[in-house]
């Protein structure tokens, strides 16, 4: 093997460094993990077994297991069995844990039993970022994304899916019964074998029918009429035109440095009821008096926007176009101008639409306005096909008008939204791989997501500040 780079003989004695410290460079990210965890008050954050028991076998200290998990999630290792193997062969982990090598059951139980502590640790890092003045803009972008659960689509049932499954089983039974009658009319040994096979298939289908009927009863009793067999909290959701069985992860991302300041895992398929909750969590995490939040049209809901307004949070959410009038070349609601001092509208023909009635719809107080001159108006064909054009106004419509005015004045808001919130979701999903979540039920999935968020924020902070400055800031 001439003219190739050759390795050393495996039997050659080698002098390695005498201590693990010599393997870890001063700017190695593992040192950030070590310092960050050592500075935490684990008992106050909610971690269990911080104080050792007097009797029994000694346990691993929570700080060691926590360091193990943070390192693993930073390096895209989420399985407890894979973490166990890494602890046995990874020099950085040997340095971090003092050559301790817990088994996978101990590792798994720590993550399962410390939901409160992990969530508190995630918030603690956001507090550190706030102390380092990384949230100077007081602006966040809120968005949600669907993550796959440990539950195949075949193991999830909705009303429509249950109806299709029952119909398929009934159609198969009818087909087999017809083939059974045909086999009974035949007199041969082949017909006897066919009859036995058909009866076995029919018995199997009847068992499946009984199973589906039992699941249908269970599904009807569920609040959202949905049941998942592997992960009971996972739900069928729409995701970019396709359906997945999983969770809807909500995040509030800092617009300046793309740090995740707040997150929440839900099994609600839409985002309409998430805006005010996430905005308030973000304001508390950033300790900002005046906070601006940006979200897409999927978050537009009158009650949520009113809640943000009452909390002193400036929301910028575009209103979805639900009417097809503009598409048909007709006047939309924005073509009607409201006159506040007279509490009336002016139409494109400059006619007055006065208040006529007040009603309640979906727990919202709605005022209705229309004119008596629509029948003789020259622009009626461009306005309405009915007797008169009616314009409705929510009692807090001024909040929506002010928000729309802000969006019209600063159309870059939606570009900021795309550039800010898509990056964290794409990065975390890339780290997770195709399977996404590894744990089951909402509370455990929330713990897993908190570890991903912490790993993402740690990596972002190291990129923004550098390893050594971040270590100094943690120790300050």
Structural features, described:
The radius of gyration is 31 Å and the shape is flat. Helix content is 46%, strand content 16%. The mean pLDDT is 88. Helix 11 (302-310) links the parallel strand 7 and strand 8 (313-316). The longest helix has 33 residues, at 189-221. The strands form 3 sheets. Strands 1, 4, 5, 6, 7 and 8 form a 6-stranded mixed beta sheet that branches. The protein is α+β, with helices and mostly antiparallel strands and 476 residues long. Helix 3 packs across helix 14 (442-465). It has 15 helices and 13 strands. The protein has helices spanning 30-38, 42-45, 62-74, 80-89, 91-97, 104-113, 115-131, 159-185, 189-221, 275-286, 302-310, 397-409, 413-432, 442-465, 467-475, and strands spanning 139-148, 156-158, 226-228, 235-239, 242-254, 260-266, 291-294, 313-316, 337-339, 344-346, 352-361, 364-370, 391-394.
Short description:
The chain is α+β, with helices and mostly antiparallel strands and 476 residues long. The chain has helices spanning 30-38, 42-45, 62-74, 80-89, 91-97, 104-113, 115-131, 159-185, 189-221, 275-286, 302-310, 397-409, 413-432, 442-465, 467-475, and strands at residues 139-148, 156-158, 226-228, 235-239, 242-254, 260-266, 291-294, 313-316, 337-339, 344-346, 352-361, 364-370, 391-394.
